[in-house]
Fold:
Amino acid sequence: MTTLSWFVVACASAVAGCDDGGETGSGGSGTGAGGEAAATTTSTDAVTTTTTSATASTTSGVTTSSTGSGGDPSGGGGEGGGTTCTLPPPPPADCEAPEDFDGYTRHVCNVPKGKLAGTNLVDVYQPDGATNAPVVFFVHGGGFVGGTRRDAVAPLARYASMGYVVVSIDYTLRPSNALGVPTDPIQSVDEMDYQYDAAAELAWTRAHVADFGGNPDDVVLMGHSAGGAIVSLLAAQQSWIRDELVENDLICPEDVAGFHTNQVIRGVVNLSGPVDFDLWTYDWAQPLFESGFSPAMRIEASPLTWLEKDASIPPFLIVVGGGAGVFHDPPGLYQGHDAFVHTARDLGYRATLIQPLITKKAAGFSWPWDSLNGKWCFAQMDHVGALNGTEATQLPFALDQVYDEDVYGVCNQLATGGQWGSQSVERAAVDAFIADPTALVPWAEGPEYGHASIPDQDTSPLLLHLGGGPVPTDAGVAWSGVLPAPGVFDGARDLIGAAIDPAGITSANGAPVPLGVLSVQGISFGSGQTMTVSRPVPNGTYEVRAYFADGNVSRVMDITAEGVLIGDDVSTYGGAPIVAKVEVLDTVTVTDGSIDLVFSSTQGVRIAAIELVPAP
Structure:
């Protein structure tokens, strides 16, 4: 049977700093970015302002003072006695003429490098009408030797459409040969130009993001691959952003001793980025570490090295892929993530690891998964998919599969059947995290190393459009496109030209069934035919509703689910010429993470959709 699963390591409520109460916010007491602090007043020639945030928050022409420090390890600045200093306003942002897009404007700005001479380019996505909006600070991947700020335009544009101000940065790349292998290993921290640049650009973002409608106290870092390592180090090691804030006159020098990164970073999303460079199980990526860093610097540059008690780091969400293709996520990546999350949790910080995957196991083999046992196949996000999954809602799993000869058929069916899973899991988890890093990540509250059907807690109906693609509803919920098994499916028939009468057909929640669902159907022609559909679903009991649009008065079919007859001699005829109808069938209980539906008829099979309604 098919199981839609993922491995999770979640911060449990029993861990210090991980309950949902007031002092678990990424900003200290409560959930604010800066926590409660004694108010102080500072002034410049132009502006007098009062602030209660935990660190300085500066916009063009405005000066504020740092007031709070310390606080709970899982929160932000907490209550502090406060200090006062005069900070000059930052210089104006150096940006080119903006480009207008649907729903947002993109600015290209020049930002001074952190250590070297010159500037880097930064893209700022400004949503229309943005005011004090949350901010996503994105760092691209590329093994520290390649990539640009434009590598993730589609996902970042989606965040802008959701109301986030997005900052996407370039940074200094390491020298490499034609194969992308580094040619000059980093021997000291002074040579980590990429990290200096990212810290400088984060400090620039804090100084200027309000100019683009963003809230400098509400910033989540996100990075893919090497970018994930960069943002993780920015949050785990206190000195990178702290030193840049001091250098750019964004924090009072006397507040440095009490500075913690969660005062300026609300959360961190690491998408398949390494956190332990010293592991020797990176497969295809091994040359990036072996040739890119000296042995000592593989430790020094690793975010895992810098986790320490009372450092007050922000919450982390780490997403790791897998696969077996050229660009799979290697074992060392998962091992490092696992160690990072457990270490962070042991220190009282909030950290979550998810590994979305979809599997089909042969009978008699159980978890933990082992790709070497050769008795199951899996199709999961590869290394690039970990980035694409933040945007994609429905993609076929044809990326990376491990096949065993005796289960090749079912694996191939899984990959070619257009079935979805881990991309939408990742998208939902990341969306929830950046909205509130202090909350438990959806579906990550189960056992530390378990697998479960997703979403565990979801009680909404599952809308399956058989034989066609996804069809959105007015409520924004999509009927998912599902293809029947190859070999028993003759194609989808488009009946849109046949003037189907939907006749007030509604789904279980009373919403009208779109004509696009009723008019494109799964069909198996001829007499005595069967059509099989398998779909990953959460375990539980469901009422099954079948939707038809058929003008053949004699066509009837039997429908079984999980081997049990739930519809006996069900007539597909709704009326002439072609009138839609719905049949409410018996309930079915799913225990293996997949529902298997079989439709059979002496007059051939024709069915538009199935709705699975979780039983109360």
In short: DSSP finds eleven helices and 27 strands in the chain. The longest strand covers residues 579-590. The two ends are 25 Å apart (CA to CA).
